[in-house]
Amino acid sequence: MLEEFVKFSIFGLPEGLISMIIFSFLITLVLTLLYKKFINKEKYDELKARQKELRQKIKESKNEPEKFAQLQKEMMQASMESMKLTMKPMLITFIPLLLVFGGLKWLYMDLAKIGNIFTWGVNLPIVGNGGGWLFCYIVFSLIFSLILRKKLGL
Fold this sequence. Notes:
The chain is mainly α. It has five helices and two strands, in the order H-H-H-H-E-E-H. A two-stranded antiparallel ribbon has the order 1-2. The radius of gyration is 21 Å and the shape is elongated. The mean pLDDT is 89.
């Protein structure tokens, strides 16, 4: 049953593509919702606005070394705070995501025996002659992430 779902194909699409699109969407949706739940959106937006303001001031103060150094120091502090805010959701999802990737590898490589979902005619260094489940996951998760973040206001 699970193997049939993974290998499901319609309209002549490659085996594994439909299931990988579904898995990518679901994983990205869960990660985006967790990100939204665990980040302090107001503080994050304030920090981003402050960073934008500081970038503008830095551009204007190129000829004033002391002011430039002070503004860069403030920019570093704002960047560190911003990074701390985004670190919490990342740490919460890291271990479960590793388990999910292990499961996907097992599904596609061991159970369904799908090597490359996409193949291209040239054998490229490092990536070889096609893209497997991980390549497809990365491509589709980037697309879904952009869409979901826009729809959820992140």
